[in-house]
Protein backbone atom coordinates (compact mmCIF):
# COMPACT_ATOMS: atom_id res chain seq x y z
CA UNK A 1 0.00 0.00 0.00
CA UNK A 2 2.74 2.46 0.90
CA UNK A 3 4.72 1.69 -2.27
CA UNK A 4 1.60 2.08 -4.43
CA UNK A 5 0.61 5.32 -2.73
CA UNK A 6 4.12 6.67 -3.21
CA UNK A 7 4.02 6.23 -6.99
CA UNK A 8 0.36 7.16 -7.46
CA UNK A 9 1.11 10.74 -8.58
CA UNK A 10 3.46 9.53 -11.35
CA UNK A 11 1.01 7.34 -13.24
CA UNK A 12 -2.69 6.45 -13.46
CA UNK A 13 -4.45 4.17 -10.94
CA UNK A 14 -5.60 1.66 -13.56
CA UNK A 15 -2.14 1.35 -15.08
CA UNK A 16 -0.71 0.81 -11.61
CA UNK A 17 -3.33 -1.89 -10.98
CA UNK A 18 -2.60 -3.61 -14.28
CA UNK A 19 1.17 -3.46 -13.97
CA UNK A 20 0.89 -5.04 -10.52
CA UNK A 21 -0.89 -8.03 -12.03
CA UNK A 22 0.29 -8.74 -15.56
CA UNK A 23 4.08 -9.06 -15.07
CA UNK A 24 3.56 -10.75 -11.69
CA UNK A 25 1.21 -13.26 -13.31
CA UNK A 26 3.74 -14.07 -16.01
CA UNK A 27 6.34 -14.58 -13.27
CA UNK A 28 4.07 -16.97 -11.34
CA UNK A 29 3.23 -18.89 -14.55
CA UNK A 30 6.95 -19.19 -15.32
CA UNK A 31 7.69 -20.47 -11.82
CA UNK A 32 4.84 -22.99 -12.07
CA UNK A 33 6.29 -24.29 -15.36
CA UNK A 34 9.79 -24.54 -13.88
CA UNK A 35 8.35 -26.44 -10.90
CA UNK A 36 6.65 -28.85 -13.28
CA UNK A 37 3.13 -27.98 -12.14
CA UNK A 38 0.36 -28.93 -14.55
CA UNK A 39 -1.01 -26.07 -16.64
CA UNK A 40 -4.80 -25.55 -17.00
CA UNK A 41 -6.56 -27.81 -19.49
CA UNK A 42 -10.16 -27.95 -20.66
CA UNK A 43 -12.94 -25.39 -20.89
CA UNK A 44 -14.06 -25.85 -17.27
CA UNK A 45 -10.62 -24.95 -15.95
CA UNK A 46 -10.36 -21.84 -18.13
CA UNK A 47 -13.96 -20.85 -17.34
CA UNK A 48 -13.28 -20.90 -13.60
CA UNK A 49 -9.94 -19.13 -14.08
CA UNK A 50 -11.69 -16.47 -16.20
CA UNK A 51 -14.26 -15.84 -13.48
CA UNK A 52 -11.48 -15.83 -10.89
CA UNK A 53 -9.56 -13.31 -13.04
CA UNK A 54 -12.55 -11.00 -13.43
CA UNK A 55 -13.42 -10.86 -9.73
CA UNK A 56 -10.07 -11.20 -7.94
CA UNK A 57 -7.99 -9.66 -10.70
CA UNK A 58 -9.74 -6.91 -12.65
CA UNK A 59 -12.34 -5.83 -10.09
CA UNK A 60 -10.16 -6.22 -6.98
CA UNK A 61 -7.11 -4.40 -8.32
CA UNK A 62 -9.26 -1.81 -10.14
CA UNK A 63 -11.23 -0.90 -7.02
CA UNK A 64 -8.02 -1.01 -4.97
CA UNK A 65 -6.10 1.41 -7.19
CA UNK A 66 -9.01 3.81 -7.64
CA UNK A 67 -9.75 3.74 -3.92
CA UNK A 68 -6.13 4.23 -2.95
CA UNK A 69 -6.08 7.36 -5.12
CA UNK A 70 -8.66 8.91 -2.77
CA UNK A 71 -7.57 7.59 0.61
CA UNK A 72 -4.40 6.98 2.63
CA UNK A 73 -2.20 3.90 2.40
CA UNK A 74 -2.75 2.90 6.03
CA UNK A 75 -6.50 3.43 6.00
CA UNK A 76 -6.73 1.75 2.60
CA UNK A 77 -4.94 -1.30 3.93
CA UNK A 78 -7.35 -1.60 6.85
CA UNK A 79 -10.32 -1.39 4.48
CA UNK A 80 -8.86 -4.06 2.18
CA UNK A 81 -8.22 -6.37 5.09
CA UNK A 82 -11.87 -6.33 6.10
CA UNK A 83 -12.26 -9.17 3.58
CA UNK A 84 -11.84 -11.98 6.17
CA UNK A 85 -15.26 -11.01 7.53
CA UNK A 86 -16.88 -11.80 4.20
CA UNK A 87 -14.71 -14.90 3.68
CA UNK A 88 -15.75 -16.33 7.06
CA UNK A 89 -19.44 -15.96 6.30
CA UNK A 90 -19.18 -17.43 2.80
CA UNK A 91 -16.91 -20.29 3.95
CA UNK A 92 -19.38 -21.13 6.73
CA UNK A 93 -22.27 -21.64 4.34
CA UNK A 94 -20.37 -22.99 1.32
CA UNK A 95 -17.77 -25.23 3.01
CA UNK A 96 -19.27 -25.69 6.53
CA UNK A 97 -16.19 -24.21 8.21
CA UNK A 98 -16.84 -23.90 11.95
CA UNK A 99 -17.01 -20.32 13.21
CA UNK A 100 -18.58 -20.66 16.66
CA UNK A 101 -19.84 -17.95 19.02
CA UNK A 102 -16.40 -16.38 19.50
CA UNK A 103 -15.93 -16.26 15.75
CA UNK A 104 -19.31 -14.60 15.25
CA UNK A 105 -18.44 -12.13 18.01
CA UNK A 106 -15.20 -11.39 16.16
CA UNK A 107 -17.13 -10.78 12.95
CA UNK A 108 -19.48 -8.38 14.73
CA UNK A 109 -16.59 -6.49 16.32
CA UNK A 110 -14.87 -6.35 12.93
CA UNK A 111 -17.95 -4.95 11.21
CA UNK A 112 -18.21 -2.23 13.86
CA UNK A 113 -14.52 -1.46 13.45
CA UNK A 114 -14.80 -1.23 9.67
CA UNK A 115 -17.83 1.05 10.05
CA UNK A 116 -15.81 3.36 12.30
CA UNK A 117 -13.07 3.43 9.68
CA UNK A 118 -15.10 3.75 6.50
CA UNK A 119 -18.16 5.80 7.40
CA UNK A 120 -17.88 9.56 7.85
CA UNK A 121 -17.26 10.48 11.50
CA UNK A 122 -20.42 12.60 11.56
CA UNK A 123 -22.61 9.61 10.69
CA UNK A 124 -21.16 7.45 13.45
CA UNK A 125 -21.31 10.22 16.06
CA UNK A 126 -24.87 11.08 15.01
CA UNK A 127 -25.88 7.44 15.49
CA UNK A 128 -24.47 7.26 19.03
CA UNK A 129 -26.03 10.62 19.90
CA UNK A 130 -29.45 9.36 18.85
CA UNK A 131 -29.99 12.11 16.29
CA UNK A 132 -31.02 9.95 13.34
CA UNK A 133 -34.50 11.49 13.39
CA UNK A 134 -32.97 14.88 12.69
CA UNK A 135 -31.14 13.83 9.54
CA UNK A 136 -31.61 15.60 6.20
CA UNK A 137 -34.65 14.69 4.08
CA UNK A 138 -34.55 11.26 2.46
CA UNK A 139 -33.52 12.52 -0.99
CA UNK A 140 -30.62 14.55 0.39
CA UNK A 141 -29.55 11.61 2.55
CA UNK A 142 -29.56 9.27 -0.47
CA UNK A 143 -27.43 11.74 -2.40
CA UNK A 144 -24.96 11.84 0.49
CA UNK A 145 -24.81 8.05 0.62
CA UNK A 146 -24.16 7.83 -3.12
CA UNK A 147 -21.47 10.49 -2.77
CA UNK A 148 -19.71 8.41 -0.14
CA UNK A 149 -20.10 5.17 -2.07
CA UNK A 150 -18.77 6.43 -5.39
CA UNK A 151 -16.52 9.38 -4.55
CA UNK A 152 -14.72 8.52 -1.33
CA UNK A 153 -11.90 6.01 -1.48
CA UNK A 154 -12.93 4.09 1.64
CA UNK A 155 -15.95 2.54 -0.03
CA UNK A 156 -14.04 1.71 -3.18
CA UNK A 157 -11.63 -0.08 -0.84
CA UNK A 158 -14.57 -1.94 0.69
CA UNK A 159 -15.66 -3.05 -2.79
CA UNK A 160 -12.09 -4.22 -3.39
CA UNK A 161 -12.23 -6.18 -0.13
CA UNK A 162 -15.45 -7.91 -1.16
CA UNK A 163 -13.93 -8.76 -4.56
CA UNK A 164 -10.89 -10.27 -2.85
CA UNK A 165 -13.11 -12.23 -0.47
CA UNK A 166 -15.05 -13.69 -3.39
CA UNK A 167 -11.74 -14.55 -5.07
CA UNK A 168 -10.56 -16.36 -1.94
CA UNK A 169 -13.71 -18.47 -2.04
CA UNK A 170 -13.43 -19.07 -5.79
CA UNK A 171 -9.94 -20.61 -5.53
CA UNK A 172 -11.51 -23.70 -3.93
CA UNK A 173 -13.61 -24.22 -7.07
CA UNK A 174 -10.75 -23.32 -9.41
CA UNK A 175 -8.49 -25.86 -7.68
CA UNK A 176 -10.92 -28.64 -8.60
CA UNK A 177 -10.07 -28.17 -12.27
CA UNK A 178 -6.58 -26.63 -12.28
CA UNK A 179 -3.38 -26.46 -10.26
CA UNK A 180 -3.80 -23.56 -7.80
CA UNK A 181 -0.35 -22.04 -8.43
CA UNK A 182 -0.67 -22.14 -12.23
CA UNK A 183 -4.27 -20.89 -12.02
CA UNK A 184 -3.19 -18.02 -9.78
CA UNK A 185 -0.61 -16.93 -12.34
CA UNK A 186 -2.98 -17.14 -15.29
CA UNK A 187 -5.75 -15.32 -13.45
CA UNK A 188 -3.34 -12.44 -12.82
CA UNK A 189 -2.37 -12.33 -16.51
CA UNK A 190 -6.00 -12.42 -17.68
CA UNK A 191 -7.24 -10.04 -14.98
CA UNK A 192 -4.44 -7.52 -15.49
CA UNK A 193 -4.85 -7.19 -19.27
CA UNK A 194 -8.19 -5.26 -19.19
CA UNK A 195 -6.72 -2.87 -16.61
CA UNK A 196 -3.76 -2.06 -18.88
CA UNK A 197 -6.10 -1.55 -21.85
CA UNK A 198 -8.46 0.61 -19.77
CA UNK A 199 -5.55 2.75 -18.53
CA UNK A 200 -4.43 3.41 -22.11
CA UNK A 201 -7.99 4.24 -23.18
CA UNK A 202 -8.35 6.52 -20.17
CA UNK A 203 -5.14 8.34 -21.07
CA UNK A 204 -6.18 8.81 -24.69
CA UNK A 205 -9.53 10.24 -23.62
CA UNK A 206 -8.06 12.64 -21.05
CA UNK A 207 -6.65 16.13 -21.45
CA UNK A 208 -3.15 14.70 -21.26
CA UNK A 209 -3.64 12.65 -24.44
CA UNK A 210 -0.31 11.63 -25.91
CA UNK A 211 1.27 11.16 -22.50
CA UNK A 212 1.44 7.43 -21.85
CA UNK A 213 0.91 6.31 -18.22
CA UNK A 214 4.49 5.09 -17.80
CA UNK A 215 6.20 8.18 -19.22
CA UNK A 216 6.15 10.10 -15.94
CA UNK A 217 7.70 7.33 -13.85
CA UNK A 218 10.89 8.17 -11.99
CA UNK A 219 13.51 5.63 -10.89
CA UNK A 220 12.09 5.51 -7.32
CA UNK A 221 8.62 5.06 -8.86
CA UNK A 222 9.82 2.15 -10.99
CA UNK A 223 11.39 0.55 -7.92
CA UNK A 224 8.15 1.00 -5.95
CA UNK A 225 6.13 -0.62 -8.74
CA UNK A 226 8.68 -3.45 -8.95
CA UNK A 227 8.32 -4.05 -5.21
CA UNK A 228 4.52 -4.05 -5.40
CA UNK A 229 4.61 -6.39 -8.42
CA UNK A 230 7.15 -8.95 -7.18
CA UNK A 231 6.52 -9.01 -3.43
CA UNK A 232 2.97 -7.62 -3.20
CA UNK A 233 1.59 -9.66 -6.11
CA UNK A 234 3.71 -12.54 -7.42
CA UNK A 235 4.98 -13.93 -4.10
CA UNK A 236 2.01 -12.93 -1.93
CA UNK A 237 -0.65 -14.15 -4.39
CA UNK A 238 1.13 -17.41 -5.13
CA UNK A 239 1.60 -18.36 -1.48
CA UNK A 240 -1.82 -17.13 -0.33
CA UNK A 241 -3.91 -18.91 -2.96
CA UNK A 242 -1.82 -22.08 -2.77
CA UNK A 243 -2.69 -22.35 0.93
CA UNK A 244 -6.28 -21.13 0.39
CA UNK A 245 -6.89 -24.01 -2.01
CA UNK A 246 -6.39 -26.53 0.79
CA UNK A 247 -6.43 -24.80 4.20
CA UNK A 248 -9.07 -23.33 6.50
CA UNK A 249 -10.24 -20.20 4.66
CA UNK A 250 -11.55 -18.38 7.73
CA UNK A 251 -8.33 -18.72 9.71
CA UNK A 252 -6.07 -18.08 6.71
CA UNK A 253 -7.81 -14.96 5.48
CA UNK A 254 -8.04 -13.65 9.03
CA UNK A 255 -4.23 -13.49 9.16
CA UNK A 256 -4.32 -10.68 6.60
CA UNK A 257 -5.62 -8.42 9.36
CA UNK A 258 -1.99 -8.18 10.43
CA UNK A 259 -1.23 -6.20 7.26
CA UNK A 260 -2.72 -2.89 8.51
CA UNK A 261 -0.35 -2.90 11.48
CA UNK A 262 2.60 -2.62 9.12
CA UNK A 263 0.81 -0.40 6.60
CA UNK A 264 -0.24 2.11 9.26
CA UNK A 265 3.26 2.08 10.74
CA UNK A 266 5.03 2.70 7.43
CA UNK A 267 2.44 5.19 6.13
CA UNK A 268 2.86 7.20 9.34
CA UNK A 269 6.66 7.09 9.15
CA UNK A 270 7.08 7.56 5.39
CA UNK A 271 3.97 9.41 4.18
CA UNK A 272 3.03 11.44 7.31
CA UNK A 273 -0.55 10.15 7.19
CA UNK A 274 -2.87 10.29 10.18
CA UNK A 275 -6.26 8.94 11.25
CA UNK A 276 -8.99 10.50 13.36
CA UNK A 277 -9.56 9.22 16.89
CA UNK A 278 -12.71 7.42 15.74
CA UNK A 279 -10.83 5.74 12.92
CA UNK A 280 -8.08 4.63 15.30
CA UNK A 281 -10.82 3.12 17.49
CA UNK A 282 -12.02 1.26 14.41
CA UNK A 283 -8.51 -0.04 13.74
CA UNK A 284 -8.24 -1.38 17.30
CA UNK A 285 -11.65 -3.05 17.05
CA UNK A 286 -10.65 -4.57 13.72
CA UNK A 287 -7.47 -6.03 15.18
CA UNK A 288 -9.45 -7.35 18.15
CA UNK A 289 -11.80 -9.07 15.73
CA UNK A 290 -8.94 -10.86 13.98
CA UNK A 291 -7.71 -12.16 17.33
CA UNK A 292 -11.16 -13.52 18.19
CA UNK A 293 -11.58 -15.11 14.75
CA UNK A 294 -8.12 -16.62 14.40
CA UNK A 295 -7.88 -17.82 18.03
CA UNK A 296 -11.50 -18.98 18.35
CA UNK A 297 -10.55 -22.68 18.64
CA UNK A 298 -7.95 -22.06 21.34
CA UNK A 299 -10.19 -19.65 23.26
CA UNK A 300 -13.18 -22.00 23.05
CA UNK A 301 -11.16 -24.91 24.41
CA UNK A 302 -9.65 -22.74 27.14
CA UNK A 303 -13.03 -21.38 28.30
CA UNK A 304 -14.75 -24.77 28.34
CA UNK A 305 -11.79 -26.32 30.21
CA UNK A 306 -11.39 -23.44 32.66
CA UNK A 307 -15.07 -23.12 33.58
CA UNK A 308 -16.57 -26.60 32.98
CA UNK A 309 -19.23 -26.16 35.64
CA UNK A 310 -20.63 -23.10 33.90
CA UNK A 311 -21.62 -25.02 30.75
CA UNK A 312 -23.99 -27.84 30.11
CA UNK A 313 -22.65 -30.56 27.75
CA UNK A 314 -24.72 -29.20 24.89
CA UNK A 315 -23.63 -25.61 25.51
CA UNK A 316 -20.01 -26.72 25.83
CA UNK A 317 -20.17 -28.57 22.50
CA UNK A 318 -21.71 -25.48 20.87
CA UNK A 319 -18.89 -23.33 22.24
CA UNK A 320 -16.13 -25.83 21.43
CA UNK A 321 -16.91 -28.70 19.02
CA UNK A 322 -15.35 -32.04 19.82
CA UNK A 323 -13.46 -32.25 16.51
CA UNK A 324 -11.62 -28.95 17.00
CA UNK A 325 -8.22 -30.56 17.48
CA UNK A 326 -8.48 -33.19 14.80
CA UNK A 327 -10.35 -31.69 11.88
CA UNK A 328 -9.18 -28.93 9.57
CA UNK A 329 -12.69 -28.43 8.24
CA UNK A 330 -15.05 -28.07 11.17
CA UNK A 331 -18.57 -29.20 10.43
CA UNK A 332 -20.06 -28.98 13.89
CA UNK A 333 -23.19 -26.89 14.04
CA UNK A 334 -22.94 -23.41 15.48
Automatic annotation (TrEMBL):
<feature type="transmembrane region" description="Helical">
    <location>
        <begin position="277"/>
        <end position="294"/>
    </location>
</feature>
<feature type="transmembrane region" description="Helical">
    <location>
        <begin position="225"/>
        <end position="245"/>
    </location>
</feature>
<feature type="transmembrane region" description="Helical">
    <location>
        <begin position="14"/>
        <end position="34"/>
    </location>
</feature>
<feature type="transmembrane region" description="Helical">
    <location>
        <begin position="46"/>
        <end position="65"/>
    </location>
</feature>
<feature type="transmembrane region" description="Helical">
    <location>
        <begin position="155"/>
        <end position="174"/>
    </location>
</feature>
<feature type="transmembrane region" description="Helical">
    <location>
        <begin position="102"/>
        <end position="119"/>
    </location>
</feature>
<protein>
    <submittedName>
        <fullName>Permeases of the drug/metabolite transporter (DMT) superfamily</fullName>
    </submittedName>
</protein>
<dbReference type="InterPro" id="IPR050638">
    <property type="entry name" value="AA-Vitamin_Transporters"/>
</dbReference>
<feature type="transmembrane region" description="Helical">
    <location>
        <begin position="252"/>
        <end position="271"/>
    </location>
</feature>
<dbReference type="GO" id="GO:0016020">
    <property type="term" value="C:membrane"/>
</dbReference>
<feature type="domain" description="EamA">
    <location>
        <begin position="2"/>
        <end position="117"/>
    </location>
</feature>
<keyword id="KW-1133">Transmembrane helix</keyword>
<feature type="domain" description="EamA">
    <location>
        <begin position="153"/>
        <end position="294"/>
    </location>
</feature>
<dbReference type="InterPro" id="IPR037185">
    <property type="entry name" value="EmrE-like"/>
</dbReference>
<feature type="transmembrane region" description="Helical">
    <location>
        <begin position="186"/>
        <end position="205"/>
    </location>
</feature>
<keyword id="KW-0812">Transmembrane</keyword>
<keyword id="KW-0472">Membrane</keyword>
<dbReference type="InterPro" id="IPR000620">
    <property type="entry name" value="EamA_dom"/>
</dbReference>
<dbReference type="Pfam" id="PF00892">
    <property type="entry name" value="EamA"/>
</dbReference>
<comment type="similarity">
    <text>Belongs to the EamA transporter family.</text>
</comment>
